[in-house]
What we know:
With 207 residues, the chain is of the alpha/beta class.
Amino acid sequence: MTMTGETPSSQRPEPSTQSARRRLWAIIPVIIFLVIAAMLLVRLQGDNPSIVPSPLVGKPTPEFALPGLAGLQIEGTPSPGFSSTDLKKGGDVTLVNVWASWCVPCRQEHPLLMQLAAQRDLKVFGINYKDKPENARRFLGVLGNPYHAVGVDPDGKTAIELGFYGVPETFVVNPKGVIVHKFIGPLTPEAVEKEIVPAIAAARKAG
């Protein structure tokens, strides 16, 4: 006979069933959060994952001064590093590329940076992000060095001040030191043609 208030053992959920239900209820909030986050991201980016709103576009480059990459020679002299002030000198449009030797997409975009660096009235500056000097030098030694100067950002502080999302990233800066365009992710031929080159042309015209 079953005593009042007790559930017969034949009607009690199996322990495995109870555990599965608890896990399900635990992950439902996570699933809801991920769905909402994905919807917001799609709405922000539209069809282009490289387009993320940047509050720095249209504003002067934040003040910074980066030391040079130890042991790197550029045109026979040690790389001196660079600062935000250098982006305003000479009347040239500049590209500021954030990169690292451990970044696989950085290798993919590198030939395009080499091509861009060959343009007249354009200087490409590199910010080496959280990298080991010997690995960064090897990277440039094997793939070529497109940079007018390389600054080292070992703790990522400067990248954060630039509104950095992740390596690689490229900024177009006009001759007055104002950021006019930001591209997130590895450069592609299509991105260079449709975004970077027009941004460079507009910056030159405005400058």
